[in-house]
Amino acid sequence: EPEEPSLLKKLLLAPANS
Amino acid sequence: AGGSPPTFPHLVVELLKCEPDEPQVQAKILTYLQQEQASRGKHEKLNTFGLMCKMADQTLFSIVEWARSSIFFRELKVDDQMKLLQNCWSELLTLDHVFRQVMHAKEGSILLVTGQQVDYALIASQAGATLNNLLSHAQELVSKLRSLQLDQREFVCLKFLVLFSLDVKNLENFHLVESVQEQINAALLDYVMCNYPQQTDKFGQLLLRLPEIRAISLQAEEYLYYKHLNGDVPCNNLLIEMLHAKRA
Fold this sequence. Notes:
The structure holds two protein chains of two kinds.
Chain A: H1 7-13
Chain B: H1 10-17, H2 22-38, H3 48-68, H4 78-104, E1 109-111, E2 117-119, H5 120-126, H6 129-147, H7 152-163, H8 174-195, H9 202-229, H10 238-247
Antiparallel strand pairs in B: 1-2
Helix pairs in contact in B: 1-7, 2-3, 3-4, 4-6, 4-7, 4-9, 6-9, 7-8
């Protein structure tokens, strides 16, 4: 079962001004 | 001595530049909570504890935003960034809360990240023994830091010492963490000696507060995990992810 994408990882990878 | 202008080591100035705009963070979180509550049906409104969890969750978002745009931290790869934040998220929340009370300096009331003030006795009357115990530990720490005259320059140094923890293993760039620890300790010592020459043990006293912050944050995590198992914490958010990260 694919692991739930990490919210923290999404935040850290988001473009700077998002 | 004798009213000389404060002298800030260059690195402390750089750390201060990373600080978020407090009024902006305040407004953002307050607006979010108001919209969150307004969007809920009459019988789904969050209770006080649920609102506090949402507030902590939003504060975590702002902490992640601060970290990833900060000097040193932005040089790290995402995996290292995640490990450092998963290690210290509750300490940063605790330190943020405690410092806000040190600056608030109003006995009997607690200043929230939204800028709202809550009567301490009111919370104590609603909270159970565990939460009361937690709150009183935090208030004891607030008193110690207030008598130490903790200021914002020292606060930002402590935040970086917490974030760049030497306890975190399996980092790709552990060398940077060691280097940051060394640089921040040196800058903090330099700052304290220059600006508080009469408080000869202030530097040591500030560092002695770090294990206390760690202890309070771990107690808070235990409490939050217990409440989560009881279904009292709103789910699917950053707070829950971070809570589980350490237990994974």
